[in-house]
Amino acid sequence: MTIAIATEWVKVPAPDLEIDAYVAAPSEPGHYPAVVVIQEIFGVNSHIRSVAERLARQGFVAIAPAIYQRTAPGIELNYTVEDMAIGSRHKELTTASQLLSDIEAVITYLRSRPDTNAESVGTIGFCFGGHVVYLAATLPAVQATASFYGAGIATFTPGGGAATLSRTAEIGGTVYAFYGTTDPLIPLEEIDQVEAALTTASDRHRVFRYAAGHGFFCDQRPDYVPAAAADAWEKVLELYRSTL
């Protein structure tokens, strides 16, 4: 059974800027667990907003911050080759320190809301956002991470430096990672590396593999696989309900 929701755009104050963010929350007054939704390279587009709304209908306050606020405020792209090139350029301009700072600011904002119980929060991210939430899992407040086809976790970190995978031991919460086994952007050996690092770090973490390509969760992309998306969604809800 789903519940009525309300949506709005808000401004989240951060140390060096204000971040535009899309919020979806249950309409009924209450104190709800919170989830931060991190975009693909395409901005806070209709797919990302729909994920936030789906979470809200399940009883979460969901917020999707614009992680390209510094370089492309208001950007919203489609799944074309041309838009992919634009989104990739802005991805290259992000840094791990800025991303972590922005997500910390979003968590602080969530804790200021009267409708959240945000001592601990969850995250969910897709594509580049899947990488970003793996990085953000190192933040103490993040207790549940759903990382969908996050490319490059084993090979780089935004802005340069040691690969994000090297920080796995810093993760305090639980990570569920979702991959397609025919994803051309994430070789199987990199999935194996992520799984090995997570397994070494904690027996709570889980990696799920589907016979699918990149973007299998997004119903706006040609790689959408309904059965895999539905199964992954149930696992995401299981994760949040058991940890938040």
UniProtKB/TrEMBL annotation:
Enzyme category, top tier: hydrolase
Domain Dienelactone hydrolase as annotated: residue spans: 19-242
Keyword Hydrolase applies: yes
Enzyme Commission code(s) on record: 3.1.-.-
Coiled coil spans: none
Cross-referenced InterPro entries: AB_hydrolase_fold, Dienelactn_hydro, Dienelactone_hydrolase-like
Keywords tagged on the record: Hydrolase
GO molecular function: hydrolase activity
The UniProt record lists the keyword Hydrolase: yes
Gene3D superfamilies named in the record: alpha/beta hydrolase
Name of the featured protein: Dienelactone hydrolase family protein
